[in-house]
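Continued from yesterday's entry.
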Amino acid sequence: WARMVSEAGSFYPPDVIKQYEKGETFASTVGDVHFRPEDHQLVRPVIIVRGKAPKDMKNKEDYWDVVEVVPGAPLMQKPDAFGCKLGSYT
């Protein structure tokens, strides 16, 4: 949000939305992400984990092992799947 506000030079929601709609990819804690302009959904990698039994945990926050990180785009519904029609900016 802060980056898009900075790039828009404004807090006005339509200006910020237009920045997101550019579809620019940016780094996040789970990998590269972007927002789809068609429906404003975040496209991000999906982290597949396997939970641990309490006896296998090294500490109280050691809940799982990461099995795989897969691209999110192929897993998402198509932008028009739910009939979402974005209206005007205002």
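--- second protein ---
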Amino acid sequence: MAADEALSSRAPGQVRVVVGMSGGVDSSVTALLLKRRGFDVRGAYMLNWDPQEEDEHGRCRADEDFADAKKICTQLQIPLHKVEFIREYWSDVFTPSMAAYEAGHTPNPDVMCNREIKFKRFLHLCQSRFQADYIATGRLYLMRGADATKDQSYFLSNTTGDALKRTLFPVGHLTKTEVKEMAKEAGWGWLTEKKSSAGICFIGKRNFSRFVDKYIPPTAGFFHSLDGTVLGKHEGMTKYTIGQRARIPGRLDANKLYVVDKSVENNSVTVAEGADHPALLTDSLYASDVHWISGTPQALRAGEALACEYQVGHLRAPAPCQVEPLQPANGEATDAAGQYRVQFSIDRTVAPHQVVAFYQGQLCLGGGLIQKAGPSYWDQHKPVPAHWTI
């Protein structure tokens, strides 16, 4: 929600907003803008990951970030509270993510964190403990952000509409450069030089493979070609995802092989040569647990296909698609279980449990989990269009 809408019926000082302070430039400028508008602003620093799980160099990033957030809030003369969701994060985000990795899937913990922690538990806590009218956060915005490289509407695609109505996005319309300029003008040049915390939310900048190995002991298996030929050994399936380059020790063509399939039963990874191999391309996917932020679109309620755009992955470009509700046994179209087939012209295949988001223009309609990709061009014996490029 925009700040102007939040002020439509009350004076700014009568509207309490709790800003999720991360110690970074985006949340700091968010608090600054709301303070300038006259809102009753408070800061809250969320601790979701046990600080004893320090990074690989022995530093606890949480302590550093909290100190930075405290410094900003002191300058703005607003209170800062530390709120912990360590236990909830472990049960609602981390454990399901590890279970998905172990099953050979590729989950998106950041989307789960937004849905289960930031826009559910954090919102409810701010309402009950601090009597907040709204929460606010940096960057995240339901519409595509002004800065395409920092747009995070994809991460909101599985969040409820009710939660978003209680959330303000003061910097969502700004580019990263504009946000940094505002920080410098406020005397916070040091914040603009701070390294981004981007990365999987509970891993951060740590080595992903080594981190997961701590919780899912790797089991060696074999790489196979599409015809079943054994090409070499792998060190564990969790180290690979569909579409990723696979380097097989001792093979001269290792830099040309890509993962096209994984089998948990056989602990095998199937690879093919070339990033544009037909086994890596598909024209459909199947999604479940789809959540529509403002309710199911009319076309789908009528059992018809919805023309929109889909996006898989934060930085991948959206593309046109047709979303169709799957047919139950009685032949009647239904979306009761949020099951859909997504048809498009051509795209790289996707890994199960990645998130697919749906858009109409700049507006995020919602999103869900990918259950599986449709048949590949290889499976369909379908020629790859001459115009296709990665």
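The first helix runs from residue 3 to 6. The radius of gyration is 23 Å. Will compare against the first tomorrow.
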